[in-house]
Amino acid sequence: LIEGITEAYTATGNGAVTRSDVMLRIEDAAILVEDDRIARIGTREELGRDLPADVARVDMGGKVAIPCFVDPHTHLVWGGDRSDEFNRRLHGAGYVEIAAAGGGIKSTVRQTRAADRDALAAKALRTLDTMLLHGVGTIEAKSGYGLDLETEIKQLDVMDQVSAAHPVEMVQTFMGAHEVPPEYAGRPGDYVDYLNRELLPIVAKRGNVPYVDIFCEKNVFELDDSRRHLEAAAAHGFKIRMHADELHPLGGAGLAAEMGAVSADHIVWASEEHMAAMAEAGTIATLLPGTSFFLRGRYADADAFKQAGCAVALSTDYNPGSSHTVSQALMMALACMNMGMTFEESFIGVTLNAAAAIDKAATHGTLEVGKKADIAFLDAPSVMYLVYYWGINHVSDVMKDGNFAVR
Ligand code: NIG
Ligand code: FE
């Protein structure tokens, strides 16, 4: 029995929601955990009745309890860093310009190809530690900094390795189509053929990679190549996610809807017609305000997605180039201040809808009976401090799968 909770705060539900009238707030709360699940949640008084006398009690001493954050879009595994490219951007160079000169994603590809497995794993484990300290219990993680058979598999192997060794839970995505590798420069179609022929069958056989993602973007993988890759992926049984309409209004959001994608991400330039198609298809809009912030670009139109009836999730897009952060609380702040979201909407975006964006809303993303005991505790006067006192990590304790992973 966990007591000493001044306030438990959560959305409620087992799937993505498009409204924010699903919040539950319990003052002076207690949570009964059995094994890895929430067995009861309510006021301390309610739970205090009919409890076995020998129940183990944990006193949090006055903290706020929320469901662990879910981060549904991360590029977890990569080598090196791009801090000097970052400084070049501060001196005026553009992201697309740097990429065109062989920097950007391609520079991380070189560094990831050169890194050995243990170095990649050690770095990924440090990142997972940081995520956990920031209250993140579950993430989606993609490959995509290899762009060849050997390195893409190396990235997936590293994910297996660190996932087995760390409490943060992970779902894997194959993103061989993250960029056109130098070997196929100017021939994205040939690279897609290579991915379809050589990599998809091998990755499908691994059995623990449910998703395929693609960077559908002007001068990267345009609509026809994207469709061809995603159709091949679907034929292998993969579910679809997409980086769509990030830098240009190419129409990726429409393709995501057409493909029945679980989630379309970025979607800064999505048209209203495609937003409506996404709503119809049940494709979640995963918005990445950290990327807009870090690239000083336009923010996605959260309100238009809401009007279209699309469920909105938020993610860090953790990666070395366009958004180098793990803080979902900071994404809430950016979404509230720059995308016009309410606190409640942003909270749902990093919990329930984020879980739905990785098909885990039935078990993750809220504090409800039967769901995973994945609980982050905030050392703050109220849950509002997540955004109101911004730029601060308020998470002091984290329970993952019923055990304290941070205390
Ligand atoms: O989601 N847009 C493409 N991919 C990443 C950026 C990766 C990088 O710059 O290394 C993104 O923003
Ligand atoms: Fe990304």
Automatic annotation (TrEMBL):
Listed InterPro entries: Amidohydro-rel, HutI, Metal-dep_hydrolase_composite, Metal_Hydrolase
Broad class of enzyme this protein falls into: hydrolase
Cofactor(s) listed: Zn(2+); Fe(3+)
Domain of life: Bacteria
Domain called Amidohydrolase-related: residue spans: 66-403
Residues that, per the record, bind Zn(2+): H73, H75, H243, D317
Molecular function via GO: imidazolonepropionase activity; iron ion binding; zinc ion binding
Residues bound to Fe(3+): H73, H75, H243, D317
Keywords, in A-Z order: Cytoplasm, Histidine metabolism, Hydrolase, Iron, Metal-binding, Zinc
This protein's record includes keyword Zinc: yes
PANTHER family per record: IMIDAZOLONEPROPIONASE, IMIDAZOLONEPROPIONASE-RELATED
Family assignment from sequence similarity: Belongs to the metallo-dependent hydrolases superfamily. HutI family.
Full protein name: Imidazolonepropionase
